[in-house]
Amino acid sequence: MTAPRTEKFADPQDLALRAADWMAGVIAAADAPFRMALSGGNSPRLLYGELSLRRIDWSKVRFYWIDERFVPPDHPDSNLRMARETLLAHIPIQPDQVHAMPTLSDPETAARAYEDDLKSAYGATDLDAARPLFDLTLIGLGSDGHICSLLPGSPVLEERTRWVAPVTQGRPEVRLTLTYPAVESSRLTVFLVTGRDKAEAVKRVRQGDQNLPGGRLRPQGETVWLLDRAAASLL
Ligand SMILES: O=C1O[C@H](COP(=O)(O)O)[C@@H](O)[C@H](O)[C@H]1O
């Protein structure tokens, strides 16, 4: 774990433009396959749109998700749908490059299936700190301090064995989430946070506040915080 780097931008559009340029360079410099875990919610929409416009060798990228709402893939709340509409539908990729969290069986079966998919890609059933699961993990932050669907007060915060788990409390819908061991296993962890409503959570997570799910994250590789001026306003 290295000291996090922080980049501040004037506004979400400026952040998205410059983050897309930087991420395109990261992908270009990396070996294939490049396993990239995507966040959902609203924050990464602009970035995904910008990435879709960059000249990137997408054939080397494998897309995964850090969490998903347990809804059909065409549902308005689906993180897969958001990524499809903003990025995946606009770039030259094959279906087998997209490793979406399954949501068509029951949550427990789906979580096991996704964990199997990750283990198959990783080539082992135990995580090795010297060999991260993901090359890049993109993480958003809720104003309540949640990351992925590691929600405040949820039993999943204590999960240290499974890589993927259902989350049945804390939101109206069931969700699937990477657990801490899986999400921490990344060569590069990128927090993307915008908006004044996130400023307090950013400050507390950066202080390592253990009461917030984000404050408990211990990424194994390099960590970069991409913040707009509003989200960074309390730092
Ligand atoms: O519930 C979620 O929240 C976080 C943050 O979402 P945002 O809309 O505030 O950007 C997100 O990273 C996660 O993937 C999503 O499912």
Automatic annotation (TrEMBL):
Boundaries of every Glucosamine/galactosamine-6-phosphate isomerase domain copy: 11-225
Catalytic activity of the protein: 6-phospho-D-glucono-1,5-lactone + H2O = 6-phospho-D-gluconate + H(+)
Enzyme class: hydrolase
Recorded metabolic or biological pathway in which this protein acts: Carbohydrate degradation; pentose phosphate pathway; D-ribulose 5-phosphate from D-glucose 6-phosphate (oxidative stage): step 2/3
Keywords carried by this UniProt record: Hydrolase
Keyword flag Transmembrane helix: no
Signal sequence interval, chain numbering: none
SUPFAM superfamilies documented for this protein: NagB/RpiA/CoA transferase-like
InterPro entries the UniProt entry points to: 6-phosphogluconolactonase_DevB (IPR005900), 6PGL (IPR039104), Glc/Gal-6P_isomerase (IPR006148), NagB/RpiA_transferase-like (IPR037171)
EC numbers: 3.1.1.31
Summary of the function given for this chain in its UniProt record: Hydrolysis of 6-phosphogluconolactone to 6-phosphogluconate.
Family: Belongs to the glucosamine/galactosamine-6-phosphate isomerase family. 6-phosphogluconolactonase subfamily.
The name this protein goes by in its record: 6-phosphogluconolactonase
Species whose genome carries this gene: Rhizomicrobium electricum
Gene responsible for this protein: pgl
